[in-house]
Amino acid sequence: MSVNAYRQAKSMTERPRAMEQRLMTEVTNELIIARKSSLLGSKLMPALHRNREVWSTLSAVCGAPGNQLPPALRASVISLSLWVDRFTSEIVAGRESIDPLIDVNIAIIEGLAPAASASAVSE
Question: What is the pLDDT of residues 85-102, one digit of tens each?
Answer without folding.
Answer: 999 999 999 899 999 999
